[in-house]
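#structure-requests
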Amino acid sequence: MATSAISVPFSSRVMTPEEFRIYRSRLNGLFNTEIRGDSAQLKVVGYGDEAKAAIRACNDDGADVIEVGWNLRDNMLSVMFRIEAKLRIPVRHWRLAGEGQVISPNTNVSRHPLFSPGQTVELFLLPDELEKEYKEANSEEQVGVVWKHLEPGATDSTDPLEQARAKFQLANPVASTGWKAYVEHREAAETSMQEMLELSEYVRDEGLHPVLDQIRNGTILVLKDAGLEEEQQYAVADGILPIGVSIEDSWGDDVQEVDVHSRIYSPTRPAAVDVSFTYWHKTRWESVEFNCEVRYSIINPIKKKGPSNLSNSMRGSNMLFKMALDSFPPGRRWYPSYITGWGLTGPDVDAIHLALFGPVGFPGNVVDKVDTVRLLLAAVGIPFRVAREEGGADRQNPGRVGAVEWEWDYDDWIGFNIRKACGVPLQRDAGWRPKIINGSEYEDEDEDDEDEGEGEGDSEDEDYY
């Protein structure tokens, strides 16, 4: 165990007390080691000879274990800072691991299965140099679902572009100085997402929660509709990562609250588009609460290295669309007040399309503008068909489990606005008018109940996600 070559012996990184005091003073208090409330014990032992030697070196009595307190209010970084204070090796050089899992510093202790309330926990001190070895040695113990469709390729090249091409199966990447940041950024995001899946309550019996399943399969459907070959579909889909997910429901049935943040990495250039989806739909005794909003943010080019904070990337983000039910007052007849807003314009679509697939005519531009917008929606769990012909239907998935339910029939409104923003209106769009006018219900006198069955015979429902 633990035989990988290490250029700088891990045990030699142990600082003297004075060196560590100076190191900590430079952090200007950017760490928090305070334990709030009752605590339990965490025992840390070394993984490999060098880690064991480091622990013995930092203990006055030569003990081979470090003990610190923890409780359910902690995140892992706080726990790591407590260990750092005893180990005197900066946290950037090591991680904590247990039962085959390398624990991300961003993990909330309360959501990790290795931490049980009031129980003593035992973990490994894992030098960064041995992380790959540890994962390979414990590969059979890994849990969760693998999100990616394709295995990463390998290359001996030191050129960041060639590394990106091999690792992420990129077909037509452009020359750019930004590929090094892209590779580091995307690898960190993939690691973060995979850790979320392995620890998440949204995975059961090796199966994904219906909303996550809807994201994974819905993106493939859009790429299939776009005419991509299967290998191309998988290469693009593997760059769509739902990094932040919060769902309130009964395992896909009666979805009430959703908060999804996804990142779409460009398959052609060092760029990405972040998409967020917030959804709230609850029926009360005398009211209905409904709110739905999709926002996006373009990162072109990716500049920062390492993991990116999704919440920061969404600051100053742009609204794609929103819809809400403002009020539903009681009475003999209830008249809801609807609020809608569409933010996506033609120039916005052009900027998104350029960031992801390049200029028109570029070899990597394999997805048109309409399907690009559809891809943004699918990336956060709203797979949506947009009519391309006069007789076609604008619609969401047909009543599948995990579906988003509009409080009103917004499908036509979404389809109309997507075509308008993409510059491909249908003839029927010229006479289209919303069913919601000035916050009130608009009822067409010519409409009757028979219209509700329109489009039920669509034969494509069976493979629609």
